[in-house]
Amino acid sequence: MMPGMAVSLSAEAMIDIWEQGTGRHPIDQALLLLRRVCPDQSLDALCDWTVGERDMRLLEMRRATFGDRIDGYAECPVCGVGLDFELSCEELLASAVPDNATWRTIEQAGCAWDVRGPNSRDLALAAAAPDLEQARRVILSRCVREGTGASPSGHWMDELGRALAARLSELDPLAEILIDVECESCAHRWQTVFDIATFFWNEIHARSRRLLQEVDLLARTYGWTEGEILRMKDQRRSLYVEMALS
Ligand SMILES: [Zn+2]
Asked: Which residues of 182-209 are buried (b: 16+ CB within 10 A; e: fewer)?
C-alpha cells in the first residue's frame, strides 16, 4: 500500500466492525481493522504482519478517522492520581520500521542471532501465557534463534534474554510504544505502554454507541432510515441532532 492512502472508517463501516469485534480478543479486533485496510489480503497473510506494521496501519487509519491528536490517560502507580498526556499519530508513525517480518542477523554477546519482528500469531500465543515473564519467553523463543539455525536453549530471562528482547524492540519500535510520564502530584516518573489497537478500539466503541443514539433520535424525529442517517456527513448529522434536541 502506498503512503498517503490511509483508509478512514465511515460511520457504517465503523458500526459494522464494532459489531463483529465486540467481545473478541484485542488481537482479533486489530485484525478486523486490518482487513478493512487491505481487503485483498487473506486473514492468514494479515496474521503474519509484524505488530509494528499492524500498528502503523492502525495509526494511519486512526488519524484518517479521528484526526492526528491522541488524548492519553494514565494513573500514577505510586499515588493513583490520574494524568492526561498528548500524542501525535504523525510523530509515532515517524518511528515505524516497515518490512521487518523477515529474519535478519544481529550480534549479541559475541554470537550471531537471527531475529524477526513479532506478529499477531506470536502475540496470540504470548497472550495465552500465565504471566508476563512467560509471555516474553514465548515471544523470544519464536522470534529469536541462534545463527546456526538451532532453536535457543537455556534460561531466556537471564541477562542475555533481556538483551535480546531489547534488540527485538529496537527492530520493531512500534510493537511496544513506551511513553515517559511524570506524576504532577508526587513527581514519580515511569513509562506507560501505549497500545494503539486497544485505544482505537475503545474510541470505535464509544463512537459507534453515539452514532446509534443519533440514529435513534433522528429516525424518531424525521422518519429517516438508519442507512440514510449513517451515510450523512458527520457535520450534517450533528446539525440535525442539535435541531432535534432544541
Ligand atoms: Zn503520583
From this structure: ebeeeeeeeebebbbbebbbeebeebbe
